[in-house]
Amino acid sequence: MTFEKKRAQTSQEIPTASMPDIIFMLLLFFMVTTTLREVEVLVDYKLPEAKALEKIENKRLISYIWIGKGGKIQIDDSIVKLEDVQEIMYKKRQALPNLIVSLRIDVGVDMGLVTDIQQELRKAYCLRINYSANVKV
Amino acid sequence: MLKKRRSKEATIPTSSMADIAFLLLLFFLVATTIDVDTGIGLTLPEYVEDPEQIEVPKDRMAAILINENGEVLLDGKPISIFQIKNTLKPRIQSKIDLPKKKKLIVSIKTDRKTVYNAYIQALDQVKLAFFEVRDEYALAKYGKKYKDLEKEQQKDVKNAIPIIISLAEPEKVK
Prior knowledge:
The complex is a heterodimer of chains A (137) and B (174).
Chain A: H1 19-33, E1 49-50, E2 54-55, E3 62-67, E4 73-75, E5 78-80, H2 82-95, E6 100-105, H3 111-123, E7 128-132, E8 134-135
Parallel strand pairs in A: 1-8, 3-6, 6-7
Antiparallel strand pairs in A: 3-4, 4-5
Helix pairs in contact in A: 2-3
Chain B: H1 2-7, H2 17-31, E1 38-43, E2 61-66, E3 72-74, E4 77-79, H3 84-93, E5 105-110, H4 116-142, H5 151-160, E6 165-167
């Protein structure tokens, strides 16, 4: 007895012509959502953990200040002195009036330094701040 | 003539197109950081040379003091950081119906040697207390949590329970 192979009449290929289109769509999504890391962080820091967190909606408005272990202050790409903070931040605020300053401060830093920075920010009229923190599980 | 041309199909090979797109996709997948910035928001007061001393009635103030060892005083009484929330909540709630000028002010003061983490933990507790009171108020009035409310309703809740946190002016001599 011989078996005859059953073959469908239609072609058995999966149409792959639209594959690039689908992938391009995915690609576009990621291109739009990506924010490449622009600055290299030079200080060593560990963020505190908290529960009452808010998300910052608009990433373009954020300007970061890092304070690492040992009290090193970094703005943008360089380590700065405390005295320079006011001037730098004032210029930033002039360029972007509704600036949000995100403070990424190491857990072990003394409050004295943090207060000093805050005073400088107040003098520079950067009044919206955000203490960066991770979600406590 | 026409028949001949039809048989000779001139096509660009597009099968590798997907691979190229995949490569690009992979690059962006790897380079993407989806971490959303989260943190505790605060608005600093404007800088004034000589801040005026305004007397605030004692029942309006909740003064939190944190010393260099991370020990906390709330209105002069020692308290653990994790009790701050539950101690503040009834005090915030008792002032919901009062006019804006009589709402609770929470003042946080630290020593210069206090560790940043202790300050954030305390601030977190204070914020949590306010958020929970807001949620409860929203649930009671609108049957929804604060974040699910309409803009107008949120405004109303915000007016009833404003978050007023005062960071004490740092002392000059120390």
